[in-house]
Design brief:
282 residues; Alpha-Beta Plaits; Rossmann fold; six-stranded mixed beta sheet; binds adenosine-5'-diphosphate; binds magnesium ion; 13 strands; 34% helix; alpha/beta
Length: 282
């Protein structure tokens, strides 16, 4: 039985087609990332999975269940962070989790174990306000684990963190996968995903442009270096290319990671944007 299955899932806000008929399946034990730039529809997709946003069209099936009652029952087994919850700054991490456990109506017995999983056991008695951003985010993930959900959904958990914080979150996601949790996570950086996830769906403007296991994706990913035009302009044009996984500046060069192995098509795109590069090489 699949953990998540969507078919033709669509959300329209007035003229904006935020999510355009997406279909994907997440199997038990997968760490599945929905990857794409800001505004591509990640949060809207997650909102529809969680029942916070009503789809315009399409179907969601969670843990084999669908329909209003089925989804309601299935969502009891889902833990999610849409954004960092409002923890109490003057209370400890431990006490904050006790409050969340009470709100969720689940016991306190697993709190110690969960703090261990997220690496906050040593700091459990310290006040939340003294935590680093990475620790705060880990406490938010701890809150999603209360009640031992089958599925954990994390919306851009590494957002706004420094490299250390990002690494902590990556390691935590990997360890959740190792513990047999199915994880659905969103992000906008490919290099975060390749070290963390097992499967990825690449979202651009509300549609899935590629869906694959990370292993498959890495086999076909190509890195291309651009030179010879103004770096800012090359960066902007490459960042709008639908098959660019990541775009970074390096001195006078811009490095583009492609989802396919077709640099010529990137070159045509750049020319179409009025950017003519003197050098484009894998
Ligand atoms: N409540 C809303 N009303 C109107 N447009 C929205 C609303 N929420 C999101 N959008 C639009 O839908 C698109 C997808 O947004 P979102 O799902 O938040 O993307 P992401 O999480 O990938 O950044 C964006 O163009 C955004 O402006
Ligand atoms: Mg978002």
């Amino acid at each position: 039985m699949s953990v998540i299955e969507t078919r033709g899932l669509t959300k329209r806000y007035g003229n904006v087609l935020a999510v355009d008929s997406i279909s994907f399946t997440v199997e038990p034990g997968q760490v599945f990332d929905v990857l794409g730039p800001n505004g591509c529809g990640k949060t809207t997709t997650i909102g529809m999975l969680l029942g916070i946003i009503t789809p315009t069209a399409g179907e969601v099936r969670l843990l084999g269940l669908t329909g209003r009652d089925g989804l309601h029952a299935a969502r009891q087994q889902v833990g999610a962070t849409l954004e960092t919850p409002n923890f109490y700054p003057y209370l400890s991490g431990w006490d904050n989790l006790r409050i969340v456990a009470n709100l969720k109506g689940v016991g306190h017995t697993t709190i110690g174990e969960i703090l261990e999983v997220v690496g906050l056991q040593d700091r459990r008695k310290d006040k939340f306000q003294g935590y680093s951003l990475g620790m705060k985010q880990r406490l938010a993930i701890a809150a999603t684990l209360l009640g031992d959900p089958k599925l954990v959904i994390l919306d851009e958990p590494a957002n706004g963190l420094d490299p250390d914080g990002m690494r902590e979150i990556r390691e935590l996601i990997v360890s959740l996968g190792e513990r047999g949790k199915t994880v659905f996570v969103s992000s906008h950086l490919l290099n975060e995903v390749e070290r963390t996830c097992t499967h990825v769906a690449i979202l651009r403007k509300g549609t899935i442009v590629r869906q694959a296991s990370v292993r498959e994706l890495l086999k076909t990913a190509t890195i291309v270096e651009l030179r010879g035009a103004e770096p800012e302009r090359m960066h902007a044009a490459a960042a709008s290319y639908p098959k660019a996984a990541s775009v970074t500046m390096r001195g006078e060069s811009v490095m583009v990671q492609l989802h396919d192995d077709d640099p010529a098509s990137l070159n045509r795109w750049l020319a179409g944007q009025g950017v003519f590069v003197a050098f484009l090489a894998p």
